[in-house]
């Protein structure tokens, strides 16, 4: 009789479920065959929607069952009335599921963040995808387009800004010469480093709290694609030159700083061809316009490879800039920071003295346009692999370069 | 009479590149790749009616034995009207370079026993990889390009080997190994990357001899 009453109570307790809120998982220990039979009876009551994870079979085996919230009290009353031992494995299944979902999301987040291999060379498409990912992962990172290349590829800049309105800003670009693959690769690593260090590294946090950072990882996307598809040693843009069968202009001879002077060629077929006129290359013009319109840049930093050099203006003339002492000293400090990591030595000096006289260069333009802290880096190595730096050296190169950049940025900030 | 030069400035660096090219030709091989670790000191002397002479103190390393370095002095004389003749280079290596006898013999035997003539291209590849079995071919290209760089350098050039575009072994009836290379040389001042054909003959005891096609 009692059994019938209890069973009817159990029947009444069936319901339709969408979540597992309040569901409990019990572990039931049947002492003998009689108790096993009771549990099998329970199993047959379909309306209870009991979900046996381990079915009742023999006294030796524990029986695990998930019980919907509404049935929990009834089932427990039944078990107790029969003297059947049980324990609560899971108090509330939804809690467990929620926690698991959160763990998985966090793990997936970590997976997604580390699924981009910073220690490998990537295609332009992969790089652009990672820029999107960084922008979506960090609220203070935004991907903006500052223009289009000759072949109509977007020029994407990552803007790092924690607020304010037109804060003093730092410019960092890479890949103006497309064959210098370690630079685009390092720029990606550096972008990720800065984004993930904000909030945890005191220096980066203080930097981004006061200043904005604009990072252009692939300044010459047409050339970059060309190095993947056709000629790994391509340096210039891919613009058609009127009256010539040759293609492309050296984008670092195309700036309006001593344009057309020594150290640049007027031969369109040359790898240091300066172009028909200053800013003739849309890739260069886009950056110039952006920086001029912004009006508040304090530093202009550009990455090249190879030779391990840290240079400041001038390239178009061999005289020292007005800020020579400060730039030389800051350069040395940055080179020292770089060396502190792996012992990699960078030579410091003006472009003209260190590498060659070269006109139409970007940091000469930025310096002559009021951006005092203008530096050009030539990353690893010194010629053993040259442009073909093994991918295994990307992250070490990026790490040491970052220390040098950071040193300069900290000085600009303070 | 000789002017001290800052080692970090390009005139000294260019002369050092010539010296290293010459040294690679002279002392390099499939088992030894010489590289400049540091340019310690440089001086320049302008000799009337002759040319510009650079006195260099170099620290070199073997890329296959980086724990050790060896010191070297070099004199690089760029002749006047240097379009036509190669710089004159004298070098003195202080100390011993690691012996490559065993590695050389092993390489020699391996190549001699190949059924088909060795052919390869793009060393290193776009990503900087060199398969280990091609490293000796890569280093032999340094020898070959070292010769070309030495022969073609002026005070206005700074050459480096950018890549081995193509290499073809040519079997010979005598005891030498022959490799016909197409190398890409990166000239830093003009930024040009120029292909160059160069043939190397090599023997473990006789060393390398270069001829240009």
From TrEMBL, chain A:
One BP annotation, GO: proteolysis
Xref: Gene3D superfamilies: Metallocarboxypeptidase-like, Zn peptidases
Signal peptide location: 1-16
CC per GO annotation: extracellular space
Domain Peptidase M14 positions: 120-412
Location of this chain's protein in the cell: Secreted
Active site, UniProt feature: 378 (proton donor/acceptor)
Keywords: Carboxypeptidase, Coiled coil, Disulfide bond, Hydrolase, Metal-binding, Metalloprotease, Protease, Secreted, Signal, Zinc
SUPFAM superfamilies cross-referenced by the UniProt entry: Protease propeptides/inhibitors, Zn-dependent exopeptidases
Coiled-coil boundaries: 90-144
Homology family: Belongs to the peptidase M14 family.
Name of the protein described by the UniProt record: CBPA2 Carboxypeptidase
Organism: Panurus biarmicus
Upper taxonomic lineage: Eukaryota, Metazoa, Chordata, Craniata, Vertebrata
From TrEMBL, chain B:
Key word Membrane present: no
Any Gene Ontology CC annotation: extracellular space
SUPFAM superfamilies recorded: Cystatin/monellin
Keyword vocabulary terms for this entry: Protease inhibitor, Repeat
UniProt keyword Repeat, yes or no: yes
Signal sequence, renumbered to the chain: none
Ranges for domain Cystatin LXN-type: 1-102, 119-213
GO MF assignments: metalloendopeptidase inhibitor activity
Record family assignment: Belongs to the protease inhibitor I47 (latexin) family.
Name listed for the protein in its UniProt record: LXN protein
Organism annotation: Panurus biarmicus (Bearded tit)
Origin organism lineage: Eukaryota, Metazoa, Chordata, Craniata, Vertebrata
């Amino acid at each position: 009789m009692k059994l019938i009453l209890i069973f009817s109570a159990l029947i009444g307790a069936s319901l339709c479920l969408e979540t597992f809120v309040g569901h409990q998982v019990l572990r039931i220990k049947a002492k003998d065959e009689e108790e096993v039979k009771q549990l099998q009876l329970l199993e047959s009551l379909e309306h209870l929607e009991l979900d046996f994870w381990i079915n009742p079979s023999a006294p030796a085996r524990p029986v695990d069952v998930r019980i919907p919230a509404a049935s929990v009290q009834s089932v427990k009353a039944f078990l107790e009335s029969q003297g059947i031992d049980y324990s609560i494995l899971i108090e509330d299944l939804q809690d467990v599921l929620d926690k698991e979902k959160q763990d998985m999301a966090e793990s997936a987040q970590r997976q997604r963040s580390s699924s981009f291999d910073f220690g490998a060379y990537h295609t332009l498409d992969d790089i652009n995808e990672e820029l999107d990912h960084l922008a979506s992962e960090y609220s203070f990172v935004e991907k903006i387009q500052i223009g289009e290349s000759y072949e109509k590829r977007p020029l994407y800049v990552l803007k790092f800004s924690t607020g304010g309105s037109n804060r003093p800003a730092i410019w960092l670009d890479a890949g103006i010469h497309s064959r210098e693959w370690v630079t685009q690769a390092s720029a990606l690593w550096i972008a990720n480093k800065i984004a993930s260090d904000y909030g945890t590294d005191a220096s980066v946090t203080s930097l981004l709290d006061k200043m904005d950072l604009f990072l252009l990882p692939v300044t010459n996307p047409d050339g970059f694609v060309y190095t993947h598809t056709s000629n790994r040693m391509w340096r210039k843009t891919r613009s058609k030159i009127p009256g010539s069968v040759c293609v492309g202009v050296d984008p670092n001879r195309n700036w309006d700083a001593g344009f057309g002077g020594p150290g640049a060629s007027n031969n369109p077929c040359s790898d240091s061809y300066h172009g028909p006129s200053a800013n003739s290359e849309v890739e260069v013009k886009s950056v110039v316009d952006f920086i001029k319109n912004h009006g508040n840049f304090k530093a202009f930093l550009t990455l090249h490879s190879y030779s391990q050099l840290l240079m400041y203006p001038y390239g178009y003339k061999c005289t020292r800039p007005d800020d020579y002492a400060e730039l030389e000293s800051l350069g040395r400090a940055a080179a020292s920071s770089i060396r502190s990591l792996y012992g990699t030595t960078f030579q410091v000096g003006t472009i003209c003295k260190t590498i060659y006289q070269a006109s139409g260069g970007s940091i000469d333009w930025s310096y002559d346009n009021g951006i005092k802290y203008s530096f050009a880096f030539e990353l690893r190595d010194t010629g053993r692999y040259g442009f073909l730096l093994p991918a295994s050296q990307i992250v070490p190169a990026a790490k040491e370069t970052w220390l040098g950049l950071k040193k300069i940025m900290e000085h600009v900030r303070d | 009479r000789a002017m001290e030069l800052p080692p970090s400035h390009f005139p000294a660096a260019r002369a050092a590149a010539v010296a290293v090219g010459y040294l690679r030709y002279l002392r390099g091989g499939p088992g030894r790749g010489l590289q400049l670790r540091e340019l310690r000191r440089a001086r320049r002397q302008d000799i009337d009616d002759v040319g510009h002479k650079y006195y260099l103190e170099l620290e070199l390393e073997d890329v296959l034995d980086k724990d050790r370095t060896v010191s070297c002095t070099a004199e690089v004389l760029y002749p006047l009207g240097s379009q036509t003749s190669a710089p004159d280079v004298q070098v003195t290596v202080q100390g011993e370079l690691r012996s490559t006898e065993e590695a050389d013999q092993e390489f020699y035997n391996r190549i001699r026993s190949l059924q088909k003539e060795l052919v390869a291209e793009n060393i290193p590849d776009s990503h900087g990889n060199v398969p280990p079995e091609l490293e000796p071919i890569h280093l032999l290209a340094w020898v070959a390009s070292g010769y070309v760089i030495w022969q073609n350098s002026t005070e206005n050039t700074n050459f480096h080997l950018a890549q081995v575009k193509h290499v073809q072994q040519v079997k010979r009836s005598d005891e030498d190994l022959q490799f016909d290379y197409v190398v890409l040389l990166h000239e830093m001042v003009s930024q040009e990357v120029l292909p160059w054909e160069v043939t190397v003959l090599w023997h473990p005891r006789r060393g390398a001899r270069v001829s240009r096609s």
